[in-house]
Amino acid sequence: MGHHGWGGRPPASNAEARQRIIDATARCIDRHGVTKTTLSDVANELGVTRQTVYRHFARISDIVGEVAAQGAESFVDQLVAHLRGVTDPAEAVVEGMVFCVRTIPTEPHLSLLLQLGDSGAFGRGATTGDAIAYGARMLHRFPVDWAAAGLTEDDLGGLAEMIMRLLTSFLQNPSDPAPDEARLRALLTRWLAPALARPSASLPGSG
């Protein structure tokens, strides 16, 4: 790598290098779209060689996944703000689901998760232990007293898994025509909300 790489400002650490690669990838995606963004584009954006990028990420899809994951953090902040004041567990979950189904496809970086196939957060990756644990942490940020509602930590893990599975279905296999918000809210209120209207029973063998 020449001394003019990284725009003349070499990163001070591996963490900074990774973040600058992620930021450069986000700019390339915004400019060219995810399908036309290559590792060479990212290297050129940074003024480094492809090998320099390879030292931090093995594949362009790995960097795209990081762009999407950081978009997810920002999205969760929006979701929590949207739910401010909604303290009923059933209402919070229903409104959260409606917000996700409506908003995720319109968020440029978050919607990348829909384009990562089975490895993405809304493909087979939705049911990994890490994804479910992330979902449970997200539920903890809801303005709901889950313990007072009778939900344990194990219950929140199960609820997070069900939410991820439902979101995967709604986002990857939308109805034709897609339901409007009122119909989606009514569907979730009828079939999902009752499970949160009372303390959930433990599944057989769940401990």
Describe the secondary-structure layout:
Layout: H1 14-32, H2 39-46, H3 50-54, H4 60-82, H5 89-103, H6 129-140, H7 153-172, H8 181-191
Helix pairs in contact: 1-2, 1-4, 5-7, 5-8, 6-7
Apparent shape: elongated
Unreliable residue stretches: 117-124
Structural class call reads: mainly alpha
**Termini, distance in Å?**
56 Å
User: Largest sheet, if any?
Assistant: none
N-to-C SSE series? HHHHHHHH
**Got a strand count?**
0
- The total count of helices amounts to 8
Count of distinct structural domains: 2
What is the radius of gyration computed over CA atoms, rounded to a whole number of angstroms? 20 Å
Average residue-wise pLDDT: 84
Question: What percent of the residues sit in helical stretches (DSSP H or I)?
Answer: 40-55%
Strand content: under 5%
Short description:
With 207 residues, this protein is mainly alpha-helical.
Features:
207 residues; mainly alpha; Arc Repressor Mutant, subunit A; 2 domains; Homeodomain-like_sf; HTH_TetR
Question: Could you walk me through the main structural features you see in this protein, from its secondary elements to its overall organization?
Answer:
The protein contains 8 helices and no strands. The chain has 207 residues and is mainly α. It folds into 2 domains: 5-58, Arc Repressor Mutant, subunit A, CATH 1.10.10.60; 65-196. Helix 1 (14-32) packs across helix 4, helix 5 packs parallel to helix 7 (153-172) and helix 5 packs antiparallel against helix 8 (181-191). The radius of gyration is 20 Å and the shape is elongated. The model is unreliable at 117-124 (pLDDT under 50).
